Amino acid sequence: MITNIELTQSGVEKFNQFFADHAKTGVDMQAVMFELLDVMQERASMDESLVYELGGQYTRSGNPALLTLDIQDISVTEEEDE
Questions:
Q1: Does 82 fall in a domain?
Q2: Cβ distance 44 to 5 under 8 Å?
């Protein structure tokens, strides 16, 4: 079974604010979004909390930053493997 994760409107808003607050200049927003979705897919499939860590090398502060999403911030769809 393939599980697809997408952000809902509230998830997109949280991500955009998180990125604006923490990412340093030059960090590719799209690359971070793809990584976030991969992490959320893995964490959701293992029934773990929906937390994403942006590494310190990518933040303005130099410290890791955490984004915590709620279930209403993601949309999960499952497809059968062929």
A1: no
A2: yes
